[in-house]
Write a sequence for this structure.
């Protein structure tokens, strides 16, 4: 008798504990990725458009209206706020809960420049549907291409390295079959004067880019200095995933980039940590209204510990301005979670640094939406238009007048589902 | 009916004997908790999210009791003659084994619940109810292969050697299976060992509950554990026959 009482009591206690364990905030009902949103001002990724109401069905934008439509769908009052496409971070390194952190700041798609192919593969299917998710959509390079003991091999991930131009086809094919959406190649010119890890040669770079194009993929190159950028553009790169600051860009390189339609991701925010180091404090850490998580603070407060001349920062600003003036597509990318950066937050800091460059707010918004989607051929994202995903960001003020409003968005939608803050 | 009572009595007394040995059960319960709090919460430098660390340490934590409970007590029972005594009694030997498995399940249950509550309170882990339940179920049922491994070692080694051998198996196995550092970050030369180990497959099934599994083919992990358990059962039978028949 006593024993069965003890048994019953134990079962009751176990059940109670399991019942009381906390669950995440409840998932929204299935119909709530269909709605009518308005009235709002709409920046579609390129410009402000005339429409004031947006109709979303099952996570896709189905119609734009000038007046509130007669519809059975639930109506979300836009209160005349500003709607822009969900942001795209064109340069990240994603693992763990990075994609959740990004989405919380309104970044609905990210482009990973070196990460686990398995992590990427597990998320590729969800790019093409609009089921509820707490993660930003992921496009990625998978494993980068680098020299033996080169940059990228120091993180403990096994990267098959390139030792000769003949290996190019096979190495690219390996990555493509591993799920890579494009190929990222690391290169430092032999003439670079600073200390750097071993790099592939110019011939290997050219072979790698050619092999990538032969297999119908985009080839982007990681460079850190002017000479390397010159070589990369000459070798046929489609994009540079970092800018450079050791010297200002020359007219020849500008012209070459324009002629070859090369895009650039300056990643100024990670360079700012090396060259100046004041932006994060100013924009994020001293602002009491922002809830910057301890995980974000940890990477923001890390530093590369380099002592570089002040003029390098001026070089970077000058070069980015020159590239913009020349019509080279500038993409916003944070290189999170490297030192001085954090997922989500740093894309916004990057956009505020573009203001420092002198880019107009409209172009800055385009660099974080349409340009990234266009450069990486990402479908149905980066724009507010029919048949595009309802990945949206609602802002309290006009971002064209005050870009800082991106730090405190009113609402984020992913696949048409409103994200809880 | 009487047979069921025998099973129940044996299970009850085995559990009672453990409860009456606080010098055993307190460390057994606290060790996984301390490990989790230190390396999963306070000093989590890996950048892995908190729920991933919780799953890792639950797997690590429930493997221990099943290995030790079986190996050490069976070895000492065997060496001291208690096992022979039990065989002379009308008690079916399965009752002995089942009782020990029951005790190790109780320990695994307590460890899992303690880790759940610690994670929820101190590491802000939030999971759906089906996830909590699934993790608990996998943690409990998944201890079977390790219980069998412990049983085999208990039948093979002396009571002095058993704890040392268990530690030699338990800790390296946990490490090589990616429970402390994910497999892809282990030195390349030893990564091939992980899929050979039951702890790896057990952990992958648990990770699948939170979407952190490394591959989509979960049925492979399940198949491995079933085949592994069946082989161990065969080995245990054979060893037992050698000892006593």
């Amino acid at each position: 008798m006593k024993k069965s009482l003890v048994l019953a009591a134990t079962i009751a206690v176990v059940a109670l504990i399991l019942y009381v364990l906390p669950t995440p905030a409840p998932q929204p009902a299935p119909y709530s990725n269909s709605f009518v949103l308005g009235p709002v001002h709409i920046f579609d990724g390129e410009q402000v458009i005339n429409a004031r109401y947006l109709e979303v069905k099952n996570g896709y934008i189905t119609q734009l209206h000038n007046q509130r439509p007669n519809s059975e769908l639930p109506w979300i009052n836009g209160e005349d706020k500003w709607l822009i496409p969900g942001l795209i971070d064109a340069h990240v390194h994603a693992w763990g809960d990075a994609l959740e952190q990004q989405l919380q700041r309104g970044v609905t798609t990210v482009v990973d420049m070196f990460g686990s192919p398995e992590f990427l593969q597990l998320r590729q299917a969800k790019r093409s549907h609009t089921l509820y998710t707490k993660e930003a959509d992921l496009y990625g390079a998978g494993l980068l291409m680098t020299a033996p003991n080169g940059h990228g091999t120091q993180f403990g991930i096994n990267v098959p390295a390139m030792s000769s131009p003949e290996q190019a086809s096979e190495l690219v094919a390996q990555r493509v079959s591993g799920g890579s959406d494009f190929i990222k190649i690391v290169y430092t010119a032999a003439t670079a004067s600073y200390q750097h890890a071993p790099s592939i040669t110019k011939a290997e770079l050219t072979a790698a880019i050619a092999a990538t194009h032969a297999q119908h993929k985009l080839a982007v190159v990681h460079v850190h200095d002017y000479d390397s950028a010159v070589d990369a553009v000459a070798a046929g790169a489609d994009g540079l995933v970092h800018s450079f600051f050791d010297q200002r860009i020359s007219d020849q390189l500008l012209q070459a980039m324009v002629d070859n339609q090369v895009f650039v991701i300056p990643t100024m925010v990670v360079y700012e940590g090396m060259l100046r180091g004041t932006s994060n404090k100013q924009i994020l850490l001293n602002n009491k209204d922002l809830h910057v998580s301890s995980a974000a603070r940890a990477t923001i407060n890390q530093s590369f510990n380099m002592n570089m001349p002040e003029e390098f920062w001026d070089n970077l600003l000058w070069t980015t301005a020159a590239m913009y003036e020349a019509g080279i597509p500038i993409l916003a990318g944070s290189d999170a979670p490297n030192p001085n950066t954090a997922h989500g937050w740093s894309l916004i800091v990057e956009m505020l640094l573009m203001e420092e460059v002198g880019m107009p707010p409209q172009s800055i918004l385009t660099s974080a939406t349409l340009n990234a989607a266009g450069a990486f051929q990402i479908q149905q994202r980066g724009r507010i238009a029919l048949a595009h995903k309802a990945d949206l960001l609602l802002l309290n003020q006009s971002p064209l007048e005050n870009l800082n409003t991106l730090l405190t968005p009113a609402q984020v939608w992913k696949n048409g589902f409103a994200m809880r803050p | 009916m009487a047979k069921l009572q025998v099973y129940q009595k044996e299970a009850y007394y085995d559990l009672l004997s453990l409860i009456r040995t606080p010098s055993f059960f307190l460390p057994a319960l606290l060790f996984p908790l301390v490990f989790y709090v230190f390396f999963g919460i306070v000093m989590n430098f890996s950048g892995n999210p908190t729920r991933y660390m919780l799953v890792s340490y639950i797997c690590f934590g429930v493997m221990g009791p099943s290995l030790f409970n079986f190996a050490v007590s069976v070895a000492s029972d065997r060496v001291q003659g208690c096992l022979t005594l039990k065989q002379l009694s009308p008690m079916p030997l399965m009752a002995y084994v089942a009782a020990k498995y029951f005790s190790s399940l109780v320990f695994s249950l307590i460890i899992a619940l303690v880790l759940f509550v610690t994670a929820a309170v101190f590491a802000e882990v939030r999971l759906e109810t089906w996830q909590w339940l699934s993790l608990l179920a996998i943690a409990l049922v998944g201890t079977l292969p390790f219980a069998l491994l412990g049983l085999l070692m208990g039948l093979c080694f002396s009571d002095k050697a058993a704890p040392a051998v268990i530690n030699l198996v338990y800790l390296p196995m946990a490490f090589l299976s990616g429970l402390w550092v994910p497999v892809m970050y282990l030195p390349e030369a030893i990564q091939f060992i992980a899929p050979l180990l039951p702890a790896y497959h057990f952990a992958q099934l648990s990770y699948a509950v939170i979407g952190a599994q490394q591959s989509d083919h979960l049925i492979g992990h399940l198949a491995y554990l079933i085949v592994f358990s069946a082989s161990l059962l065969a080995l245990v039978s054979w060893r037992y026959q050698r000892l006593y028949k």
User: Anything to note?
Assistant: Residues 50-80 of chain B form the longest helix (31 residues). DSSP finds ten helices and no strands in chain B.
